[in-house]
Amino acid sequence: MAHITKATSVKDWFDQRIAITKLWNVLAGQYWIPKNISFLWAMGVILTVLFTVLFITGLMLVMYYKPDANLAFDSVNYTIMQEVEYGWLWRHLHAVAASVIFLIIYIHAFVGIYYGSYKKGREMIWISGMLLFLIFSAEAFSGYMLPWGQMSYWAAMVITNLFGGVPVIGPALVEWIRGDFAVSDPTLTRFFMLHVCLLPIVIIMTIVLHFYALRVPHVNNLEGEEIDFELEAQKYLQGQTKESKVIPFWPAFLSKDFMYVSFFMIFFMYLVCFHFGFAMDPINFDPANPSKTPTHIYPEWYFLWQYEILRGFFFDIPLGFMTLKAADIGSLAMAFAGISLIFMPLYDRSDVVAPAHKRPGFFIWFWLLVIDLIVLTIYGKLPPEGINNYIGFVASLGFLLLLLVVLPLVSIAERKKASGGAK
């Protein structure tokens, strides 16, 4: 049993019982961050702030929201937006945060790709981060259903229909997910439970895993330099702060992050107050109508690239004994696209950990991938007709080839070059 003495202060009383000083040192006071980083490393803290905004505003909204097919639309568009004091503000905060959080996630992920922060011991950091992206995607989709507008309803029809392509159990699976033969009140109730209860718990658990995964290999830096964190930390603690290559998470690193968060929140509140419309589709201000299909169904901007991959394969492929249907090919391609970036450590087997501009082949590959995703996003919102179909097909096929063929070849070439240089 621990030796307990008379406490000299409130802090000492807690320290003797739950070791708050030791915990603080492990989490922040003596958790070390490389000096050689930029504002791009603040994205993680900004994401944490945005998730907190979503959580708090979600609690405010759920007080007045009615998860009922007959009441949901009015509870959002009349009760919350017109009758509840500042209800419009809570909804705008929630909607804009739900959209902007994906912008920051994409920046965060592509910074990790650019600087090779997914290999050499950092694989679990990357995998847990990509799992967060997938869970946030599910959370965003389930939340998109809740206003029960036209786009909410028909997006749910399209997405749940995709599960019908699962061999043997497809139709039964669709019925189970919907809780009915069509998207209806049971579907809304189930997605409400996912959005408000289950998925936030899973997100919090995965965030903890992501932060814990950072503890051992630590974060990467601008040059991909391998730092002896224990040695550099000793220098810092001995007063050699200028010579040391690291700084403590608190106060040195986090205080700078607070500055970046402050700048970001100015931009965020500007969107909330003056340009909130981009986060709320106009079609979704019409009540859900199962008998009236919208002219053009499309998801939110952050899913457009996956949606274009879904419909990019618009033709059947005959295989002699069977025919692969376009819908099945698109569904498989989209399913792979959704999880594809998790496997970055497998595609890129090169031992080089350096920014892309120091890896010529990888640098070209990186910007081809970014351009391809932009094309997919743009054409994902355009009607699938004429030349749009062919551009979507080329971009969809290009995405798959860039990950499954081009990147492995680039990494093989890098390894051969490195082994040749070593000789």
Short description:
With 423 residues, the protein is an all-alpha fold.
Distance between the termini: 59 Å
* Mean of residue pLDDT values: 92
> Which term fits the overall shape?
globular
The number of distinct helices, counting runs of at least 4 residues, comes to 16
Q: What is the architecture of the largest domain at the second tier of CATH? A: Up-down Bundle
Number of strands: 4
Strand content: under 5%
Low-confidence segments, ≥5 residues, pLDDT <50?
none
Could you spell the SSE succession in H and E letters? HHEHHHHHHHHEHHEEHHHH
The CATH class of the largest domain: Mainly Alpha
How many separate domains make up the residues? 3
Described by strand count, sense and barrel closure, the largest sheet is: 2 strands, antiparallel
State the helicity in percent bands.
55-70%
